[in-house]
Design a protein that fits this description.
extended, 433 residues, 49% helix
Length: 433
């Protein structure tokens, strides 16, 4: 009971401490904890590999390192499996420890690449896997171990095969099938290790920021890999379709039979997707295949606002003259201004949407404090640098593409978070009526 009270008090104290942190301090602290967790993970894998190499887990009545992790260290089966596999890999390739410690490779990526690593390719593979996501590493795995081409097929799905349904197990059967609970003696539980007075490193300086030692031979071998040509990426696409889809495929083949007699499913799909994307671009961004005689000028994106300043604080930006169609405006912007409807409305003219789309490359233009631009391409919205509610005009120089999240962030900076939350609540209440 006393232990629970102390734990609750510690959590409450930590929450109050976090509340006193500024946004910047919270972000810096989070990054520091991630760095320390990477170092601890690498060190834990090294320790587990040494435990298995010495076989000392057997002295703890554990037949394997996996059993030692689950019964002795109280890790879940999934955690134990991943860390045992990682420990064996880093013991085989010590160079992986440095990549894990530096945060250049995560544990999931390590396990995905592990079966394909050799002494001859590890340098190049690590260089290409550096700071990659799980999806990107999956692509790299397919480069290392490509799958054969999958033929395009349309096959009907039959009924599921009949299966024998086993009888519902009883409570006694369930209990008998479970593993016995293995209790630990006092002082051997994971929660006791944190405050153990017998910690061998209790008097030593903090080494959490020190990277794990890597053999000098491994460090000397880390060189930039030579560029190797890559063939176009191949993707396997499969999905369950309806009879309507099959009928449309057959009709498309018939209509193309004179010009493309042996058209394949891949060709039909790419033609259909090109037509769909072109139609969607035309609807949202007013794109056209025809080259306009009067091009919209001044298509460079306006300077990104600092994250601490709002649109309402901008005052008169450098492009203010061009917004009013005055002497400082370019001929292209004057053209857009002439295309604007005389009555004000929230509808952005087609010429402006087309110009913003071409200039911003169909991608969010928000740039963070670190200078990195947002890579989001979904749920893009037209963002007014000078807000529309504050008199901002529908001009290419006053509009950029923002994803929904960063457009909402700009609105909170302009009008306040409380105001925007109230607006969202009003909209939600109206929708529920």
């Amino acid at each position: 009971m006393q232990a629970r009270t102390n734990t609750a008090h510690s959590v409450s104290h930590a929450e109050k401490t976090l509340e006193r942190l500024s946004d910047e301090e919270l972000l810096v602290g989070t990054r520091r904890l991630v760095g320390r967790s990477n170092q601890l993970l690498a060190e834990l894998l090294a320790y587990l590999g040494e435990v298995e190499a010495r076989g000392i887990h057997r002295a703890r009545a554990c037949s394997s390192l996996f059993a030692y992790c689950t019964y002795e260290l109280r890790l879940s089966e999934d955690e134990a499996f991943r860390r045992v596999a990682g420990a064996r890999l880093v013991r085989r390739f010590p160079m992986l420890l440095d990549a894990l410690t530096a945060g250049e490779l995560h544990l999931t990526g390590l396990l995905m690449l592990g079966p394909h690593l050799t002494e001859g390719n590890i340098i190049g593979v690590l260089a290409r896997a550096k700071h990659r996501t799980k999806r990107e590493i999956a692509t790299l795995v397919r480069v290392l171990d490509p799958l054969p081409a999958v033929p395009a097929r349309i096959e009907p799905l039959g009924p599921a095969p009949a299966r024998l349904v086993p009888p519902e197990p009883s409570w006694e059967t369930f209990i008998a099938s479970t593993c016995p609970v293995r209790e630990l003696e006092a002082g051997a539980r994971p929660r006791d290790w944190v405050e153990s007075a017998k910690d061998p490193d209790a008097g030593s300086p903090d080494r959490s920021d020190q990277p794990l030692p890597v053999p000098a031979t491994a460090l000397a071998r880390v060189d930039a890999p030579a560029a190797d040509p890559r063939e176009p990426e191949r993707l396997k696409v499969q999905f369950t379709a309806t009879e309507e889809y099959v009928r449309l495929i057959e009709e498309a083949k018939a209509l193309l039979s004179h010009t493309v007699p042996d058209v394949g499913l891949e060709e039909l799909q790419i033609r259909a997707m090109r037509a769909l994307v072109a139609d969607l671009r035309k609807r949202k961004y007013a794109t056209t295949d025809r080259r306009r005689e009067r091009r919209v000028g001044s298509l460079t994106a306006p300077a990104p606002l600092d994250s601490s300043s709002s649109d309402s604080e901008v005052g008169a930006p450098p492009e203010a003259a061009s917004m009013s169609g005055g002497e400082g405006a370019s001929s292209g912007e004057q053209a857009v201004d002439r295309d604007l409807p005389r009555r004000r409305g929230r509808h952005v003219p087609a010429a402006v949407r087309r110009a913003v789309f071409e200039r911003d490359g169909s991608r969010c233009t928000y740039v963070g404090a670190s200078g990195v631009r947002c890579a989001e391409t979904h749920r893009l919205e037209f963002h007014h640098v000078i807000p529309f509610a504050a008199g901002g005009q529908h001009l290419a120089s006053n509009i950029t593409l923002r994803c929904a999240a960063h457009n909402a962030l700009a609105a909170e900076e302009d009008f306040g978070r409380a105001f925007m939350e109230a607006k969202k609540a009003e909209g939600k209440a109206d929708a529920e009526r």
